[in-house]
């Protein structure tokens, strides 16, 4: 029997520095084993996969905590320094945060057949593993854009924003990189990947593009027509919404598409590392992967018509997986971050 | 076939195998340590360069803006550091005032303060050991001046892996070389030891009375042993021949006197006339005394031949031998009412030999002179390359047929025991000492001498 309880914890603990956005208990209440899973993934998205896991392991109960990426990083670091891990498994979309934590020695080592089967760039030190596969996509409003207008690449987006009197001015949205760890990561990797990023930021700034928080909010805006186009939206959320909402179109940019892998680690000093390992193995196993795929967390880009993600380029050459390796530490550097954000702010004057 | 006297100890092959094995093991241990040290050194140098490259990358990315040093951390530095893929990385940039500009403030600084432009040092990263480099870049801008230090380090996993790899490869190569060396050693030793079983087989195949020298080709080391073996067999042969001679000699020489005594005894038993019987008894006694002397000489000769092969030659003064001869024969001369004139040089006459044998030979010559020569009798020693111990008398010497011919031992003159056997003893002693007997008959009389190769004093 599976019991799903959702508690809104945010309002009940207003004084705590970092708190989970949401907590849920998945699995039988009388289970002998208890596992704490902290994730930046929306419960609605990852929940079904965990439910399937709990169903397969009737003796395990999973306490699911949904966190914002910056808060999750802060509490993980704090707990690492104090030596008391509050979670058994941490999964975050802000891969650079996780690389930073592992680099600090906050993770414990685990190996199994499944972890070793991972692509080399999706595991680091046997302490950090990429469990999902999600492209950064462009979301647009099907009703408000003609097929010719749909931006297939960053160059198309630049072209749309170029005219002085562009109707896209002020109606393009992307993540606010200060509020969203994931947004920062995408922007940062963009800045390394191509020179288009400079032009894009300049165009965003000039046209008064909107930088705001959170995937759901951005996608809502596109659906409602407040934004015409959203840039660098995490594919999993976009696709889930697009399946239910005909107004939303999803494009994988053909110049290059960033592929994010949510990074999982077992904190050093976790109370139940064995259970965490078991859950990790489940997520990496074909069974778990099928579950992730069904919940749009394992997305394969395919050329051809009828796909939910529109792909116009050649998949092999456009995919840019974000590897879990020490180069992401650069994104964690205080000075670098400050410089980057300053550059960002110069382009995006805060619309006060 | 092993017998009770031969203890078969560890085989030579095993010994050589053990020796080569221990050399290889000891050498291997030394090489192992060297390989590990070398691997560590090589890995350290390789990754120190990587650290320095990353630090230099970061240092060049420092710029001065509005009087502040800004570090625009280059991704290339971390791509470089990623060449040690599993190592954790820690870095820190420190301004002139000691404040951390960016990076982890817990990153350790080198202990010796401002050690120089580049300082490598070992420290820790959390619980793990780590290696760091500190690179100093000096600024002399209007708004900012002083040294900025870039410190970057990482844990040692990649270094250890590389060191192990290098050491392992070195050991594989050296292990192979060791195996080849062992194989060659085995082949060489097997080949070197081949002559030994061959000699063994040659000896085993021999007839039990065959004491002739072995003639086999053998390496120099084994040839030495073979020569000794042949020498040993020759000695054995000589002794066995001598023993045979002694027995034949004794039988021959004793038969006649014993038969004579028996005949006299029969005569005495049949004689009724007391006077004649007394006469016969006196002759029996004479014969018996002569027989006793003969027996003495035969035994003395046997002793000399035996000593020749068993006694080691020592350095001695021939004059001492002459004095001893005179002392030993003193009572004989007193009995005969004669005196021996001793002629000795003032200096020592060194020869190598057996003093007892030489004295025995000299006694025989002197006794011969007493019995058969004419006084005055003289005994002397002459030094020189052929040192001589001589006896002279004024007689004409023995008959011609006695001084020549190879079978002196059968010559005996007279019932009292001949000078022949005494001479034969002297001759054998001379030969054993690689010398010879010379006899001269001149106006002054007869001189018999034992000439021996002399030695420088």
Automatic annotation (TrEMBL), chain A:
Signal peptide from the UniProt entry: 1-19
This protein's UniProt keywords: Signal, Transferase
PANTHER family per record: PHOSPHOGLYCERATE TRANSPORT REGULATORY PROTEIN PGTC, THIAMINE-BINDING PERIPLASMIC PROTEIN-RELATED
Protein name: Sensor protein
Molecular function per GO: protein histidine kinase activity
Enzyme Commission code(s) on record: 2.7.13.3
UniProt key word Signal: yes
Gene Ontology cellular component terms for the protein in this record: outer membrane-bounded periplasmic space
UniProtKB/TrEMBL annotation, chain B:
Reaction catalysed by this enzyme: ATP + protein L-histidine = ADP + protein N-phospho-L-histidine
Alphabetical list of SUPFAM superfamilies matching this protein: ATPase domain of HSP90 chaperone/DNA topoisomerase II/histidine kinase, Homodimeric domain of signal transducing histidine kinase
UniProt keyword Membrane, yes or no: yes
Localization per record: Membrane
GO CC annotations, alphabetized: plasma membrane
One of the record's GO molecular function terms: phosphorelay sensor kinase activity
Residue intervals passing through the bilayer: 16-39, 169-189
Upper classification of the organism: Bacteria, Pseudomonadati, Pseudomonadota, Alphaproteobacteria, Rhodobacterales
Domain of life assignment: Bacteria
All copies of domain Histidine kinase, residue ranges: 249-456
E.C. number: 2.7.13.3
Descriptive protein name: histidine kinase
Endpoints of the signal sequence: none
Database matches in PANTHER family: SENSOR HISTIDINE KINASE YKOH, SENSOR PROTEIN QSEC
Entry keywords, A to Z: Kinase, Membrane, Phosphoprotein, Transferase, Transmembrane, Transmembrane helix
Enzyme class: transferase
């Amino acid at each position: 029997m599976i019991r799903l309880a959702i508690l809104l914890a945010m309002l009940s603990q207003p004084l705590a520095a970092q708190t989970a956005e949401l907590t849920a208990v998945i699995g039988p209440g009388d289970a002998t084993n208890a596992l704490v899973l902290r994730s930046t993934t929306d419960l609605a998205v990852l929940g079904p996969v965990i439910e399937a896991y709990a169903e397969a392991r009737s003796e395990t109960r999973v306490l699911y905590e949904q966190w914002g990426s910056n808060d999750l990083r802060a509490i993980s670091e704090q707990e690492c320094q104090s030596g008391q891990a509050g979670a058994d498994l941490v999964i975050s979309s802000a891969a650079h945060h996780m690389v930073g934590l592992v680099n600090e020695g906050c993770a414990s080592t685990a190996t199994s057949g499944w972890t070793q089967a991972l692509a080399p760039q999706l595991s680091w030190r046997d302490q950090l593993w990429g469990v999902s596969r999600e492209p950064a996509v462009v979301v647009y409003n099907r009703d408000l854009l003609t097929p010719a207008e749909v931006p297939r690449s960053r160059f198309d987006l630049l072209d749309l924003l170029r005219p002085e009197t562009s109707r896209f001015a002020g109606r393009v949205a992307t993540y606010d990189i200060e509020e969203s760890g994931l947004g920062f990561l995408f922007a940062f990797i963009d800045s390394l990947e191509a020179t288009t990023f400079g032009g894009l930021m300049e165009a965003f700034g000039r046209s008064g593009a909107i930088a705001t928080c959170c995937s759901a909010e951005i996608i809502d805006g596109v659906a409602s027509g407040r934004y015409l186009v959203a840039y660098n939206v995490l594919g999993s959320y976009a696709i889930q919404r697009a399946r239910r909402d005909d107004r939303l179109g999803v494009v994988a940019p053909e110049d290059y598409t960033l592929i994010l892998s949510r990074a999982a680690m077992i904190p050093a000093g976790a109370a139940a590392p064995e259970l965490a390992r078991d859950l990790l193995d489940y997520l990496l196993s074909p069974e778990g992967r099928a579950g992730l795929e069904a919940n749009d967390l394992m997305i394969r880009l395919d050329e051809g018509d009828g796909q939910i993600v529109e792909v116009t380029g050649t998949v092999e050459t456009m995919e840019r997986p974000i590897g879990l390796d020490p180069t992401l530490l650069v994104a964690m550097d205080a000075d670098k971050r400050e410089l980057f954000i300053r550059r960002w702010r110069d382009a995006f004057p805060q619309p006060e | 076939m092993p017998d009770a006297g031969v203890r078969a100890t560890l085989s030579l092959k095993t010994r050589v195998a053990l020796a080569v094995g221990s050399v290889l093991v000891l050498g291997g241990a030394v090489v192992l340590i060297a390989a590990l040290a070398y691997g560590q050194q090589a890995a350290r140098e390789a990754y120190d360069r990587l650290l320095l490259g990353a630090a230099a990358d970061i240092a060049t990315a420092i710029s001065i803006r509005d009087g502040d040093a800004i570090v625009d951390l280059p991704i290339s530095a971390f791509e470089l550091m990623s060449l040690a893929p599993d190592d954790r990385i820690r870095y820190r940039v420190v301004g002139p005032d000691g404040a951390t500009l960016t990076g982890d403030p817990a990153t350790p600084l080198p202990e010796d303060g401002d050690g120089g432009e580049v300082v490598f040092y070992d420290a820790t990263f959390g619980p793990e050991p780590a290696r760091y480099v500190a690179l100093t870049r000096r600024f002399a801008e209007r708004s900012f001046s002083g040294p900025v230090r870039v410190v970057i380090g990482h844990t040692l996993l990649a270094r250890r892996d590389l060191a192990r790899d290098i050491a392992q490869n070195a050991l594989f190569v050296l292990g192979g070389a060791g195996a080849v060396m062992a194989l060659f050693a085995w082949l060489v030793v097997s080949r070197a030891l081949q002559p030994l079983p061959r000699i063994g087989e040659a000896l085993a195949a021999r007839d039990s009375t065959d004491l002739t020298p072995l003639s086999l080709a053998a390496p120099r080391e084994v040839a030495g042993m073979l020569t000794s073996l042949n020498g040993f067999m020759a000695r054995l042969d000589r002794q066995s021949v001598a023993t045979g001679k002694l027995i034949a000699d004794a039988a021959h020489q004793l038969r006649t006197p014993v038969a004579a005594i028996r005949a006299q005894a029969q005569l005495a038993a049949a004689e009724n006339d007391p006077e004649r019987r007394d006469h016969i008894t006196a002759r029996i006694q004479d014969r018996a005394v002569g027989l006793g002397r003969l027996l003495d000489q035969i035994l003395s000769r046997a002793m000399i031949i035996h000593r020749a092969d068993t006694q080691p030659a020592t350095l001695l003064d021939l004059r001492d031998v002459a004095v001893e001869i005179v002392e030993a024969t003193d009572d004989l001369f007193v009995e005969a009412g004669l005196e021996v004139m001793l002629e000795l040089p003032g200096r020592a006459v060194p020869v190598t030999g057996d003093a007892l044998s030489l004295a025995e030979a000299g006694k025989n010559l002197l006794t011969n002179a007493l019995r058969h020569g004419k006084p005055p009798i003289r005994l002397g020693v002459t030094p020189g390359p052929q040192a001589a111990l001589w006896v002279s008398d004024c007689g004409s010497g023995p008959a011609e047929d006695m001084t020549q011919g190879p079978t002196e031992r059968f010559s005996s003159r007279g019932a009292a025991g001949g000078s022949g056997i005494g001479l034969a003893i002297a001759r054998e002693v001379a030969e054993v000492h690689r010398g010879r007997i010379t006899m001269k008959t001149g106006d002054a009389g007869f001189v018999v001498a034992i000439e021996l190769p002399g030695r420088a004093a």
